[in-house]
Amino acid sequence: MWKTKAQGVFNIGSGKKTNIKKIANLLNKKLNKSHKILFNDYKNSTSLVSNNIKLRRLGWKPKKKINKILEDYLNKRNG
Length: 79
Description:
two-stranded antiparallel ribbon
């Protein structure tokens, strides 16, 4: 754990645009599922970008790609 006096909300992410449908398809594949992915018309949002500038100022940088993060999560989830 870092020792810092930093406070507040910190976004954790790559800072790069991530396609939500791509993540959902990746989950389908890793879970051997074929769920249909539907989007509502919420701001026509099909991608996300995390603003991690506050963490980067503290020296943090992402170490894993989204597919590895999902894989690790599913492995822990499945015990």
